[in-house]
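Quick check before the chapter quiz. The format below is the same one you will see on the exam, so make sure you can read both the input and the output lines.
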Amino acid sequence: MNNVYVYIEIGEGNKVADVSLELLTKGRKLASELGAALECICIGSELEGIEKQLFPYGVDCVHKFDDPRLFPYTSLPHTSAVVNLFKEEQPQICLMGATVIGRDLGPRVSSALHSGLTADCTQLEIDDFEMKVKQGDEFVTKHYEKQLMQIRPAFGGSIIATIVNPEHRPQMATVRDGVMKKEILSADYKGEVINHEVGKYIPETDYVVKVLDRHVEAAKHNLKGANIVVAGGYGVGSKEGFDLLRELAHELHAELGASRAAVDAGWVEHDRQIGQTGVTVRPKVYIACGISGAIQHIAGMKESGIIISINNDPSAPINQIADYNICGNIEEVVPKLIKYYKANSK
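Here is the expected output.
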């Protein structure tokens, strides 16, 4: 009752998605602050032993729904399992990945339970909250303790909004892959496993859609796991300018990234977009070339170890968070860096 829940995404070979492990890490911290337990939901096929991937992250209880028809994901049965379980358990918080699955499942669960849902959160915190409510003919201040502060960029990234859902439960939020840090709590941590009778939660009519075939394609790059990222923005100026950045990335054994403006201009592939509407990265070194530093982009790279900004505008917002600023044009600075690294990497 009133615990913190995480919906677990399960891939091929019953491998738990990284985003789910990241949410378990954050969920464990939130649950500890609330004095609650951390529980998770696994829905799929042949789930025996999957808890071994989950317990080390501090999970107190794993709820399993195991049936051959539950993998791969389809909307109706997964929604019924989560909604009907939540009607019994009355969780305080539910976290999901802001993935294709989470963006389909989250709104369905939220709508069925009449709860709020905040998408693409960049921070989750527990704090007290006050709000004026109308009682009779006057307004009074109502105090709420230990609410989930759901923080995300809003209004096109121009502000950071804190969203609170004080009256309805569960408080639901989705978070993008890579936003939260994945950390094992204890390799010896042990929790409880509950194997639910699937038929009690999922009606037969929910299996009306059957996946006949599916194709899963591996990522073309490892942007999320790269130690060094060279990223370009609209200030790079052209597709040819990105060829320079590709060469620099090659010399540094780095991955190439981009801002949304550069992607929208057609200078680089969409899957290399970094930010609130792209990939979140945490490299040891992040080289931002011609990137102004909009809030949405900052949200996707602010946890980088060292940030180097190359920009001809000394007042660019990204310079405020950069560890090193190089003031100059991309076409002048980047070739010098390439020449230097070529000379010193032998």
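If your answer matched, good. Residues 4-120+166-206 form a domain with the Rossmann fold fold (CATH 3.40.50.620).
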